[in-house]
Amino acid sequence: MNEKHNKKISKFLSLVLRHQPGIINLNLDENGWADVKELQEKCANNNILFTLDELDEVVETNDKKRFIFNEDKTKIRASQGHSIAVDLALKPQQPPEFLYHGTAQNNLDSILEKGIEKRSRQHVHLSSSKDTAEKVGMRHGKPVLLTIMTGKMHADGILFYLSENKVWLTDFVDPQYIKY
């Protein structure tokens, strides 16, 4: 399959599985799972056409591992990054001592004053990789890499979760835990 077609499918899946399932009248269960056949049918009604093999390729080759299938590949969901209420059934995990958050230079003053907020998402996203965090920051302008003292946060009783695609999630990062 061509890369352009994969990207189109991936972007549309991100939209309907993470943010706006209603635009194609897609049903998600409380854990964010969609029936693959229903997804395929409702995408086709919106001129987003793909075979099951093509969908499998999009899931397998997505560089950020944004989507996962259930065991028998009859259901699909986004791994994290939802702006709609879903329960990913994640269990609290002990994070490493430090994680990283990439942002744009123009957000720095606000973050150092108010902390990192989840805003429209369900969680704040943190990375164990400096490179990944920097790439995230580049999407929004001149990148800034922040080191988050997650070991201290955890010791202070703050919960962390690890998504299926290895993104660390938490509800808020207070400025006291941010090193710039």
UniProtKB/TrEMBL annotation:
EC number in record: 2.7.1.-
Pfam families: PTS_2-RNA
Superkingdom of origin: Bacteria
Keyword field: NAD, Transferase
An example molecular function term from Gene Ontology annotations: transferase activity
UniProt xrefs under Gene3D superfamilies: 3.20.170.30, RNA 2'-phosphotransferase, Tpt1/KptA family, N-terminal domain (1.10.10.970)
InterPro entries linked: Ptrans_KptA/Tpt1, RNA_2'-PTrans_C, RNA_2'-PTrans_KptA, RNA_2'-PTrans_N
Entries under HAMAP family matching the protein: KptA
Function, as annotated: Removes the 2'-phosphate from RNA via an intermediate in which the phosphate is ADP-ribosylated by NAD followed by a presumed transesterification to release the RNA and generate ADP-ribose 1''-2''-cyclic phosphate (APPR>P). May function as an ADP-ribosylase.
Record family assignment: Belongs to the KptA/TPT1 family.
Name recorded for this polypeptide: Probable RNA 2'-phosphotransferase
